[in-house]
Specification:
alpha+beta, 4-stranded antiparallel β-sheet, elongated
Length: 450
């Protein structure tokens, strides 16, 4: 196995034939799109409610169980999850909640007021649908968790054993790259300090997983080696390959890992620190205090298929192409989900050329009438505008990439211990590698548990 830099190929010179072939997916009338979406909602109603029906059901629950008060032409609707009150103007069809402001469509609070007025007029309202829950298969779950560490060491050893050893021409004899990678990833998996990790290294030596047990400082030293970075990226790709026959739908997003500050990534991303680009300023987060991780993950298994690392305030859209290119080399792409940060025509074209369907949300000010917009953008925008329920059903699977980041941070920590920039990059790559191996262990469970 050789490490590669994964340079993305240029997509500016796309073949017109390929684009035209993929655009045939959208070459239908508005009436046909609307009819298909309506039928789809009817067929799937018993199993999965549509996005608008989900809002209406929540509004029904609010109208049935909460106290809604009226002040003039406004209704004060309580939140389902907190003590907040949202102001609803039913006559103007506006609401002060974030859902209405972002999506500009009827929210659950507007539905609650509408259903309340219907009930006051004598209409009999149905009972809100119960929240769907999923039963945990405790026997299989316990079996996987109690044997995870042993299986993790076996799979990690098998991955590292395939690394080609680079030729050393000078200097003191070093550890093999396979041992370096194994010890570095195992140390991150253990989540303990280097000194307490020394006993784990001795156990690994007795089991024959490494050729020698390095000093605890040596593990930290190798984590700061730039030569390990491409190998770790390649191991992440290799660890995802066993699931390439399962995952065809992918989601892309980014998140931050702290390098030593006690602050949430959401505050650093959306607070005043986002406007600061450069040196550290009082009461604000410097971009050196975070590193930004861009990943593409399968929506079924949460396996990470590609990763890019940037500084805290780097844009998301430029990283879309290398993530898709790397994933498409090993996985068939059926669809790609992304938020508004990836809303660009070149990203839509790239997914279409790779044989997939892009479900990338559009910004508020997006229109199809801009002269600078190409044919792909216009067709996708019309498809989105006329089939929002169908589009949002597919787009909702994007939440799986948020789940992936939550899994990584909850299990291996959202803070990085390394001090150097290279060490931080290698540390977060080790976290993702360990996550992939754990996903492989989970995927080995019986089918009913997945």
């Amino acid at each position: 196995m050789r490490a590669s830099s994964f340079k993305s190929t240029k997509t500016n010179g796309l073949a017109g034939l390929l684009v035209a072939t993929q655009l045939d997916l959208f070459d239908h009338s508005v009436i046909e799109h609307t009819e298909v979406a309506r039928l789809l909602c009817i067929r799937r109603a018993p199993k999965a409610r549509c996005m608008m029906n989900a809002r209406e059901n929540r509004g029904l629950a609010i109208a049935a169980r909460s106290e809604i008060t009226r002040q003039g032409n406004r209704w004060l609707v309580p939140s389902q999850t907190s003590g907040k009150l949202y102001a609803v103007d039913y006559f103007l069809s506006t609401c002060s909640c974030l859902d209405f402001q972002e999506n500009e469509q009827k929210c659950k609070h507007l539905y609650a007021v509408e259903l309340l007025l219907q009930r006051e007029s004598g209409a009999v309202l149905p009972e809100p649908a119960p929240r769907k829950t999923y039963k945990q298969e405790w026997h299989e779950y316990n079996l996987a968790q109690t044997n995870e560490k042993a299986r993790f060491l076996e799979l990690l050893y098998g991955l590292c054993a395939g690394v080609n050893e680079p030729l050393q021409t000078m200097g003191r004899p070093r550890m093999s790259f396979a041992d370096m990678l194994f010890c570095s990833a195992y140390k991150i998996y253990s989540t303990v300090s280097s000194r307490r990790f020394a006993s784990d290294l001795r156990d690994a030596l007795q089991k024959g997983l490494i050729s020698q047990a390095p000093h605890f400082n040596t593990v930290c030293k190798y984590l700061e080696d730039e030569a390990l970075t491409p190998y770790l990226k390649q191991l992440i790709i290799e660890s995802s390959l066993p699931l390439k026959t399962i995952d065809w739908d992918f989601a892309v997003d980014s998140s931050g890992f702290s390098t030593g500050v006690y602050q949430k990534w959401s505050d650093a991303k959306w607070g005043n620190a986002r406007t600061v680009y450069g040196e550290k300023q009082p009461n604000e987060v410097n971009r050196k205090d975070w590193i930004k991780v861009h990943i593409m993950t399968g929506v079924k298994t949460n396996i990470v298929t590609a990763v890019e690392i940037t500084h805290a305030h780097a844009g998301d859209s430029p990283q879309f192409a290398p993530l898709v290119e790397t994933t498409s080399q090993n996985f068939p792409i059926q669809s790609v989900m992304g938020d508004k940060a990836y809303s660009a025509e070149k990203n839509l074209k790239l997914v279409l050329v790779k044989g997939g369907m892009p479900y990338i949300d559009f910004r508020k000010n997006a229109t199809a009438g801009d002269r600078r917009s190409g044919s792909v953008w216009k067709r996708m925008y019309h498809f989105y505008a006329q089939n929002q329920e169908r589009f949002m059903q597919r787009y909702h699977r994007r939440s799986n990439v948020e789940t992936t980041f939550s899994m990584i941070k909850a299990k291996f920590g959202e803070r990085l211990r390394s001090k150097s920039a290279t060490g931080q990059v290698n540390e977060v790559l080790c976290k993702i590698l360990c996550h992939n191996v754990c996903c492989l262990i989970q995927s080995a469970l019986p089918k009913k548990c997945l």
